[in-house]
Amino acid sequence: MLLPSVRSKKTTAVGIPTVDLSMERSELSELVVKACEQHGIFKVVNHGVPKRVILRLEEEGNRFFSRPVSEKLQAGPATPFGYGSRNIGSHGDNGDLEYLLLHTNPLSISQSSKTISEDPTEFSCAVNEYIEAAREVACEILELVAEGLWIPDRLALSRLIRDAHSDSVLRLNHYPATAKGKGDPSQVLPSNNVGFGEHSDPQILTILRSNDVSGLQISTHDGLWIPVPPDPSEFVVMVGDSLQALTNGRFRSVRHRAVTNGSKSRMSMMYFGAPAPNSWIRPLPVLLSPHQRPLYKPFTWAQYKQAAYSLALRHTRLDLFKAQDAPLLISASP
Ligand code: GA4
Questions:
Q1: CA nearest neighbour of 64 among 132, 111, 126
Q2: If both were cysteines, with which of 90, 146, 211, 237 could 151 make a disulfide (CB 3.0 to 4.6 Å apart)?
Q3: Which residue has the higher pLDDT, 77 or 55?
Q4: Average pLDDT over the chain, rounded to an integer
């Protein structure tokens, strides 16, 4: 199927920073804060997650997505969890993508696994093991953020996603090679095609890993698209809307999209770190001062998630929770 093409203008802007988690801690926390403030995205190397854990989940994902459609449909629809394959919205984001969406709660995983895999025990073990590792990376980064922002309680952010009732999710996205490009490089489509349209993630932090196929792009403040080169050994970390609110707009969630590649299929796996549904999200008091009033009203994760889902991929979600009398330090959308 031919998808509408999207322009990807050239820009001189941004190199996406790389953060080496084995570095000295105080230097590291400064780097992480700087990356979150300037780009809302960075790459992580030396993250300590064993290759075996990553490859085990990748293998499970590949095994599932290569099953016949009729079998995959048994694991759907993803309302909210399971197999999905659908268009995502009306903002140029009618993507060619199939996915598995799983709650990170082990009980929910074991339930979903029954229809996803012929060996549900192996599938859920692979998923649980990966989630634990990705959660550790997310918590480590949130603790570095707290240190870098001089927040006295260094667990103030990581606690939100360690919560036993955390609403974090794991998602495997599969962007099939477009038929024309398959196997024949000369037939690769000349322009990029949208797989998952422009959006920011509503959660606190996203930990993304993909196979060696390009597709992820971020939007700069001037509306240009920058490709994020794939590296299966690294994680890409993205600031979500909830972290933007918790930091009172000091960090900005990153707008991104995925384009399909043409000749090769891409698989990405994302851990989306979220608080518990009834957990309150508000600018951390320690980041406020008489000159920096809260930009957002307090909201619960459940309220925000509902707003995000009903607004689909539109830009203005966090604006719904702007404090009335706050100075307009942030623009409506990039
Ligand atoms: C983006 C981040 C996660 O993939 C996700 C997505 C969710 C979905 O696919 O159901 C959303 C999207 C994501 C943001 C806006 C809404 C909801 C699709 C969509 C149109 C699972 C999430 O939490 O928000």
A1: 126
A2: 146
A3: 55
A4: 87
Give the ranges where the chain is alpha helix by DSSP (H): 25-38, 51-65, 69-73, 106-116, 120-148, 158-162, 241-246, 301-311
List residues with catalytic annotation: 266
Q: Is the separation of the CB atoms in 64 and 100 below 8 Å?
A: yes
Cα torsion 113, 232, 198, 283: sign: positive
Specify the number of domains making up the chain: 1
Amino acid identity of 12? T
Residue 205 lies in a domain: yes
CATH number at residue 67: 2.60.120.330
Residue 249, SS3 per DSSP: coil
Name the CA dihedral angle for 234, 240, 245, 250, rounded to a multiple of 10 degrees.
40
In a domain, 158, yes or no: yes
Mutate to test the pocket of ligand 1, among 100, 168, 199 (most ligand atoms within 8 A of CB): 199
Nearest CA to ligand 1 atom 8: 309
Q: What is the mean pLDDT of residues 285-304?
A: 94
> Amino acid identity, residue 218?
I
Per-residue confidence (pLDDT) for residue 191, from 0 to 100: 47
Tell me which residue has its CA closest to atom 10 in ligand 1: 309
Question: Which is higher by pLDDT, 288 or 93?
Answer: 288
Cα of 313 vs centre of ligand 1, distance in Å, is: 8
333 found inside a domain = no
Say if CB 273 and CB 279 are below 8 A apart: no
Q: What is the pLDDT of residue 266?
A: 94
What is the secondary structure of 177-192 as a DSSP string? Answer: PPTTTTT-GGGS-SSE
- Residue 4 covered by a domain: no
Nearest-angstrom CA–CA distance, 300 and 196: 26
Domain span at 149: 12-321
